[in-house]
Amino acid sequence: MPSQSFKAVIPAAGLGTRFLPATKAMPKEMLPVVDKPAIQYVVEEATGAGIDDVLIIIGRNKNNLSNHFDSVPELEEKLKEKGDEDKLARVQKSSELADIHFVRQGEPKGLGHAVLRSRAHVGDSPFAVLLGDDLIDERDVLLTTMMQEHERTGAAVIALMEVDPEHIHMYGVATVEETENDDVVRVKGLVEKPKREDAPSNLAIIGRYVLPPSVFEILERTGPGKGGEIQLTDALQEMAADPDGPGVYGVVFRGRRYDTGDRVDYIKAIVQLAADRDDLGPDLRPWFKEFAASL
């Protein structure tokens, strides 16, 4: 585990328009992935890396998020009366995961703006930013490695993953140079959602960042970029280009990642995670094979 104390910031103020009408009155982060809302996986990832202070950036119609992480005495009492200890433990887990705080973003002006809203809570400490669209399998280590790399270098650290060039336009993309570690690269430049022919590599930023508090000063003066929003990528590009600063490093992730921001990939994530579970997999895997054969 890292020796420093980190806080976690989870931006969750997006409108979730890809999942309408399901997200008309419910945050996309509360959509279930098997039997837990997506955001609980993200909070569990943070706590699994030793972070116990989590700030969630929320917007309109996001009260369900805070409700989920509150205790529900009436429900817990009913489960106790029924002697259903397994469900009781699962209900209580969400309210005991971490010290969870909330702040409103107001008007959604981009990821950079959402991160900037965390400044008062984060203060002068390094912190991790975890996006709820990307779920990292709990069996694969990523965040801990990123935090350790920040401790080693003092730099901003981003998670990178090789993606199909056909999909590169959906991501921030890095120009990199190798280091002595095959899984760590130095980031020389970043571009937000380039066309395939303009992409400098196939290494895309996925939704994990470990940032020094100096990023706030840069975000304060970062104007709207791609899509008219304040882009975190633009601030990271400035950090990468600063010859006097610690720069930006990337940890290349080669493990299991589940993209829940797209409807098809969301369904795939549910299928993959359910199939791997001891309580569901034995019944589901034979059915999947039968179903696939029937197509």
TrEMBL record:
Q: Which InterPro entries match?
A: GalU_uridylyltTrfase_bac/arc (IPR005771), NTP_transferase_dom (IPR005835), Nucleotide-diphossugar_trans (IPR029044)
Domain Nucleotidyl transferase: from-to ranges: 7-273
Pfam families, alphabetized: NTP_transferase (PF00483)
Signal peptide (UniProt feature, chain positions): none
User: Sorted alphabetically, which Gene3D superfamilies does this protein's record hold?
Assistant: Spore Coat Polysaccharide Biosynthesis Protein SpsA, Chain A (3.90.550.10)
Q: Which UniProt keywords apply?
A: Nucleotidyltransferase, Transferase
Name the reaction it catalyses: alpha-D-glucose 1-phosphate + UTP + H(+) = UDP-alpha-D-glucose + diphosphate
The UniProt record lists the EC number as: 2.7.7.9
Molecular function terms from GO: UTP:glucose-1-phosphate uridylyltransferase activity
PANTHER family, per database record? UTP--GLUCOSE-1-PHOSPHATE URIDYLYLTRANSFERASE
Q: Which family does it belong to?
A: Belongs to the UDPGP type 2 family.
NCBIfam families, per this entry? galU
Record-given protein name: UTP--glucose-1-phosphate uridylyltransferase
The gene coding this protein = galU
